[in-house]
């Protein structure tokens, strides 16, 4: 998909002739920060101070600040136009968010000096009221054009559908859209209504065009596959700065997921560049674009910049981060177990098949509840947010994997209901959806070539005598997390057909920490619980 349409900057330049009033804008962008306020290790979880001192860490907001400030200052000194954007999801993913609920993210984005941000799905994790608190704290506009907030007392009038930025005296229109499955992946509540992304973006572009704004960027939080569809369908969008899918685009890295920018044929015959900069503060995107006198894009080029140890953290912000983390650092430094090898919790693994972290978490859930008659565990792959490296495992690392403060939830469900749940889980693998089911006490085979809704080939339940085929008419004890039990990630069958539901608690992170402690040193493994049909 990513490589479907490529184009050189020379080709795009040939699409339009130079004009006397060309405008060049440098767009510095991040996306999916996910509360990585502190530096991260190679597993995208919080980096130990000694590893950071040894030059083995990446990112963190102090490095982001240095990278943005140095680039912005140099470009402005050279007479260039600069705008700083974030494509959503600064919330959720570390103890900084768990503890401060977005206050730290707001403070750091203000200190760095963002010009505009898109609403991400995780901004709703603690409800519309908490998002409103964030909006009231930041001075830059936060946009999302496909949200109908007319029924939301907390958010009515607080989120712009589109904005016009003054960038060096030039008017740059910004439209935005948020993934419509946010009602399933987060907690926006019933009064936040999601409208079709393409229809809403087209309406906002038309409004800006009527205002005479002819340079328009879509700042989206829908994921690269949907960004490609938007570029193909919406007239008047010049470029897309995206997020949500955590896609690493690069101009020159052979390990990239796709080129930076990725070019797509637009509906009017031109080509639309799309950029994204992975996630977790590891990279900063820098896109340079030039428009002719008519507002037609005639050039686009750039790259993602790795924020490794060569980037010196901003001293003032680093000191503030150290001050904020002090109250929680001692508890998170507690070593709960050891692991003999890294435990893979990468999203590309856990959202497409069985992964080592999925085995660990689902097994821990089942182990905790077996004496209650529970037979199978189902955990969404999107709930696993980091890997754990080899050696001592701290409570902080466990929280990095499971930052959502979900609790165990058990219920009874028919075999048919379990099959329906698994069908939901494998229905959006192509989009990297977080609903992919990691399981214990069972195994299943699915066919990625089949149509969504008919991909499950077989399901077997583990018994004392071995695996036996699931009985659609029988009732089984199931353990999941309270988010899924309430219908999150499309698991509506849990909410509508689950019987004798009991949000058991304790927190999922504590369940996993306890299991690791009881099984230390832990040996990561794959169990063959998730198989693909031949």
Compact summary:
The chain is α/β, with parallel strands linked by helices. 30% of the residues lie in helices and 25% in strands.
Describe the structure.
The two termini are 23 Å apart. This protein has 534 residues and is α/β, with parallel strands linked by helices. The chain has 17 helices and 27 strands. The model is unreliable at 1-20 (pLDDT under 50). The strands form 7 sheets. The chain has a 6-stranded mixed β-sheet with strand order 4-3-2-1-15-16. The radius of gyration is 23 Å and the shape is globular. The chain folds into 2 domains: 9-17 and 24-322, Metallo-dependent phosphatases (Purple Acid Phosphatase, chain A, domain 2, 4-Layer Sandwich), CATH 3.60.21; 335-532, 5'-nucleotidase,  domain 2 (Alpha-Beta Complex). Strand 6 (162-167) and strand 7 (170-178) form a beta hairpin.
């Amino acid at each position: 998909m990513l490589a479907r349409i490529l184009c050189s900057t020379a080709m795009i330049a040939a699409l339009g002739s130079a004009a006397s009033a060309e405008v060049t804008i440098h767009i510095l962008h991040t996306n999916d920060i996910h509360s990585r306020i502190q530096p991260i290790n190679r597993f995208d979880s919080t980096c130990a101070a000694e590893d950071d001192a040894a030059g083995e860490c990446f990112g963190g907001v102090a490095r982001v600040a240095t990278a943005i400030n140095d680039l912005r200052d140099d470009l402005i000194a050279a007479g260039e136009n600069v705008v700083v954007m974030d494509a959503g999801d600064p919330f959720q993913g570390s103890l900084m968010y768990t503890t401060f609920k977005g206050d730290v993210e707001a403070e750091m984005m203000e200190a760095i000096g963002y010009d505009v941000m898109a609403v991400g799905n995780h901004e709703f994790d603690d409800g519309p009221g908490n998002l409103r608190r964030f909006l009231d704290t930041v001075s830059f506009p936060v946009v999302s054009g496909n949200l109908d907030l007319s029924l939301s007392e907390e958010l009515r009038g607080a989120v712009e559908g589109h904005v016009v930025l003054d960038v060096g005296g030039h008017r740059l229109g910004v439209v935005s859209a948020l993934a419509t499955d946010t009602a399933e992946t987060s907690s926006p509540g019933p009064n936040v209504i999601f409208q079709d992304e393409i229809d809403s973006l087209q309406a906002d572009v038309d409004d800006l065009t009527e205002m005479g704004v002819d340079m328009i960027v879509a700042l989206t939080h829908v994921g690269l596959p949907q960004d490609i569809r938007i570029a193909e369908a919406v007239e008047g969008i010049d470029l897309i700065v995206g997020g949500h899918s955590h896609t690493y685009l690069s101009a020159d890295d052979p390990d990239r997921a796709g080129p930076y920018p990725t070019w797509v044929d637009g509906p009017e015959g031109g080509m639309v560049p799309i950029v994204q900069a992975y996630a977790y503060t590891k990279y900063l995107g820098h896109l340079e674009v030039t428009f002719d006198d008519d507002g037609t894009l005639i050039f686009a080029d750039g790259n993602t910049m790795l924020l490794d140890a060569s980037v010196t953290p901003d001293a003032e912000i680093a000191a503030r981060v150290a001050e904020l983390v002090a109250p929680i650092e001692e508890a998170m430094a507690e070593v709960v177990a050891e692991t003999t090898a890294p435990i893979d919790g990468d999203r590309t693994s856990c959202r497409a098949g069985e992964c080592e972290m999925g085995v660990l978490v689902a097994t821990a859930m089942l182990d905790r509840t077996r004496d209650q008659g529970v037979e199978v565990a189902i955990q969404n792959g999107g709930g696993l947010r980091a890997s754990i490296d080899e050696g001592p495992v701290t409570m902080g690392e466990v929280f990095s994997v499971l930052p959502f403060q979900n609790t165990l939830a058990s219920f009874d469900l028919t075999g048919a209901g379990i099959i329906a749940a698994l069908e939901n889980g494998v229905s959006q693998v192509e989009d990297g959806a977080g609903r992919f089911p990691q399981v214990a006490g069972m195994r299943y085979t699915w066919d990625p070539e089949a149509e969504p809704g008919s991909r499950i080939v077989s399901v077997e339940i583990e018994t004392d005598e071995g695996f036996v085929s699931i009985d659609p008419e029988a009732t089984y004890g199931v353990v999941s997390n309270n988010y899924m039990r309430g219908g999150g990630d499309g698991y509506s069958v849990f909410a509508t057909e689950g019987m004798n539901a009991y949000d058991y608690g304790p927190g999922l992170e504590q369940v996993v920490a306890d299991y690791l402690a009881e099984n230390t040193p832990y040996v990561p493994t794959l169990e063959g619980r998730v198989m693909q049909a031949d």
